[in-house]
Amino acid sequence: MAPMFTSDSPNSGATSQKSAFSFNVQNSRGNNFFAARSAASGMQTQQQEQQMDGSWDMGDDVSDGTHNDNDDSRALAFHNGDDDEQEDTMQTVDSNHPNYFDTYAEADAFAVHLDASTAQSDDPEGAPTILSGYDLADRLQDVATSRVEAIKEHFPEDATDDEQAELEYWQLEHQTWEIFAGLTSHRLKSTNGMEIENDISLELVQNKYTSNARFRQFLMQSDPRFKEWTLILNWLLQYAPDPMESFDEGAPGYGSGWMYTKESLKSKKRLAGKKLLSLQANSNMFFAKKADRKTLITELDPDAPSRQHRQLEEEDEEAERNFMKFLWGFVRKGDISGARRVCDESGEWWRGASLSGNDEAHDYNIDGHNLVDEAAGSSQAVVGNRRRELWRRMCFAIARKQGGDEWEKAVYGVLCGDVESVQLVCNSWEDHLFAHMNSLVEEYYTDFLTNYARIPSSATKFPIFNSTAFHSKNGTLNDDSILTRIIDSLAAAPVLRAESRIPLRVIQGAILSSRVHALVVDLDRQLENLKVDPDYNVLNDDDFIGLDVTDHRTLRVIVHLVFILQSLGVEFTQHSPYYAAAENIIAAYIGFLSLCGKNELIPLYAGRLSPAKAVDVVGGILVSVKDDGQRFELLRLMRMHFIDVEGCLVKTMEVCLELTQGVYERERKGVVRLATLKGEGLKGELSHEDDMLVRGLEWLVLGGDGLKSEVIKKGVVVYKRFLLAGRLSAAKDVYDRINSTTIISSPEYSGHDLNLSASVHRHFTDEESFWSFSVFVDIEILIRALMALEDWNETLKRRPERSDRIWKSSSLIAYEKVHSNLADTIKDWLDETLADAPPNCDTSFLRDLRNIYIPELTFALHDVYIDAGKWLNKTMLSNCLELATVVADPGRSVLDTFVQTGRIEEYVCAVAGASRSVLGAGMEKDGLGIWNVR
Asked: What is the dihedral of CA 477, 479, 485, 490, to 10 degrees?
């Protein structure tokens, strides 16, 4: 089989820029898009009429972007009070602003239409899901159409490269949604047998005078492959550049009739009749300059160059080349009548006549209304060519003749279905694809006519391009791999490699060859590589095909393609082998929405995931949400889109714990000095990890009664991390924002006695939960003791140089508070909780907490008594000795903490110092002091 790509014509390509590891917003706007193309192709004014039997009109690319949506409250749920959907979907364009395209507005526009389409699929009236898929595809094309129109409306004459790239991007995305919609509708209907019309009428077969156009019409209705190829071909014709845009009025020779050659022949004939030697010599010199270069034709009929194997003057050769290049534009557009009109207006009627053979013959008396031109349906004249197949072979002979102009060969190559002659002038991916599709359609149609003996034997004697041999592996055009191999051949061609790697070109190729799943798999592969290696660069990947998973526009298009195919039940359903990869890509797009601050869109997209995946994705994203207003709005939207709220909140807490685990393990301390409370104390600034854990607990609290047990269990873990690492300010923050009284939220519960509160037992019915709650409350007792100690220290800092009654009064209050809180805590903190621990519960961290904080609280209270005796009343010094009896009590566990931490000697020294102070105070007050301590 011959290679599908044969052209060596130059075609510069767009250079690709690698985006950063995170989503590269600036590059992904398409700054380098179509660098190989000097101007935008634009929305064409001349379009082929090809009415789809499905939901889309391939010949009408103008849309007002409006829909008759139902009133489901979910539609536009994340917009604030704007009832005009079109204004919501499109950004306001400011033509005076040099960068007037909002990079993220497209995410809003697509989300609005996705939400409206989703609302339709959940309509209580029972609107089928498949219709929501069709509706979404239609809507997304409307978005692209509106973007193109908005950009064009304010497009400056001196547009920058970025502005030009933005316009070209949206034009190409518009085309992408159109071909996707048309092909998907056709393929789905073909699969379901909705377009098949197998029986050709007997009258059509037996009447040898009927038009072949009726056979083409039947072939379109009965053969899905032919219709699919025709749809692709019409799409390529529809968006081909308008030839009039490239028309150059100053180009030489349009309609000149070989002026320079004609004058040369006249001059030669006139001068050849002169007898004067001088004139003869001059004529010889005149013609020598041109005769040395070429042999001119001697006659001026159109066939002279080919018949005589001679040439025209250089100026006329250039004019002919320009003229044929101009005609190529019309033929490439599928506008043969326009090409004939140009020929007639240029005085080349013979050329126009040669092009007219493309129309099949039509006799009104036999065939009824005109199948070729509906506008001429009332005409009863016989029109068209009854020997079109013979005419095609004539075109093939011109396309393959030796010498001649490549543009003329390309024009006739299109008419006959030749690939190789057309590729000589192709300069874009679309042009090359057009050459293939045009050839396939022509040969498929010819084979069909041959099967019904509609081609005269005289025509078959002449050669024609064998598209079957060129494209097929099995000797027939009924080869499902043809489109795949065509797309792959274009991607592999060196002159097209850059353009073939433009993301939307890659996506178009995948749509045409039914390989969208391959793109999803490749993007998923990139995601896995990024997880393993954050420095992974897709441009250095040997398997790079043009799609970058960090490009948010690529993700946006792919994700919405997946949604439509899922709605149609075509691909990426739960039993599909590509379902997991598709969910990973959707999750990546949700990650982009989170990074650009569009949290209100996340539930809409997460609602399309499986329940477990939605929990994983949303749970991970909620970690970064801090604003209370956003939290409540997200919870509302999550419930609206049927996302497991409790599961997400639990996942959020798990993610917080997982992300911060290593930090606290590295900072775990054996001793925490409460002397730091005299510095920044409990009011120190929280670290990023501290804040993350507290936010995770706050999310759990929002889960309501169903998550109260989870709040307590995870709260104990968070307290454990903070206290073992000595992050007392973080522990205080948890107490302030999430304490047991707010969790229980009942007047029956005071925050102390667990057994007297029915609310506690109602929320924590199982033994483990109730025990976790008791641990949580015990830790709060420690926090309150630390708070009392901090208040005392703050009071001492405010001590005036001369003691006054006001300060002394406040100091006594602070002293009583710290005395009661610390003394009670030291005596039996965690003793009962440790004794009541259920089997298999880890209690080692509680013992560690006791060993860290009981000795330190003891030293702190000892210092309080010393300071109180110094500044308030010397009798308070005796409390140091009372505290020593508590520490030495063998019936308590306090002494064990000093033994296990090796701090007994340190405490004995502290007590000895206090004893001397007490003794001194006693001598001053008539024996009061140490001797009165029991």
From this structure: 30
